[in-house]
Amino acid sequence: MDTKGGRCSIEINGSTYSARAKATIMPSRVSRENGVNLDGTGYSTIKPALAGIDLTFDRGLGIVWDEALMLTELNVTFVEDDLGVTHLFTGAAFEGAPSLDTETGEVSGLSIRTDKYQVI
């Protein structure tokens, strides 16, 4: 049976945190755009991209969402526990700005991006 979803864990610079909602992983380090010439023929443009992961966190984790954290280089390990798949984002950085929902305690608006990604 092909299993999907399940539990996950995340470690950032040696500390383990709980992700709040689903994670979206962008493993490719290139993006492709297709277009059309005026004579109807197609073309493609390949651009370099950073691999990344979009996450949300719980406010109660004890993370201080300040400038120092946003400027820190990150080593992130994201484990899909039930599937036995580990994603490594080495020498990464946060992208975006943290946004705190005071009703749910969810911190969103952040991605982690790197040019050094591997899955094991």
Helix-strand layout with pairing:
Elements: E1 8-12, E2 15-17, E3 24-26, E4 30-36, E5 42-48, E6 51-58, H1 67-70, E7 74-80, E8 85-100, E9 106-114, E10 116-119
Antiparallel strand pairs: 1-2, 1-7, 3-6, 4-5, 6-9, 7-8, 8-9, 8-10
Task: Please name the defining characteristics of this protein.
120 residues; eight-stranded antiparallel beta sheet; two-stranded antiparallel ribbon; Elongation Factor Tu (Ef-tu), domain 3; 1 helix; 57% strand
Largest sheet: 8 strands, antiparallel
The structure class reads: mainly beta
Overall mean pLDDT: 91
Report Rg. Answer: 17 Å
Low-confidence stretches: none
Strand-residue proportion:
over 45%
Total of DSSP H or I helical runs spanning 4+ residues? 1
**How many domains comprise the coordinates?**
1
Highest-level CATH class: Mainly Beta
Shape: globular
Give the beta-strand count. Answer: 10
CATH architecture: Beta Barrel
* First-last Cα distance: 21 Å
Helix content: under 10%
What is the H/E string?
A: EEEEEEHEEEE
CATH topology: Elongation Factor Tu (Ef-tu), domain 3
Description:
With 120 residues, this protein is mainly β. The protein has a single domain, classed as Elongation Factor Tu (Ef-tu), domain 3, CATH 2.40.30. It is 3% helix and 57% strand. The chain contains 1 helix and 10 strands. Strands 1, 2, 3, 6, 7, 8, 9 and 10 form an 8-stranded antiparallel beta sheet that branches. The protein has a two-stranded antiparallel sheet with strand order 4-5. The longest helix has 4 residues, at 67-70. The chain is globular and about 60 Å long.
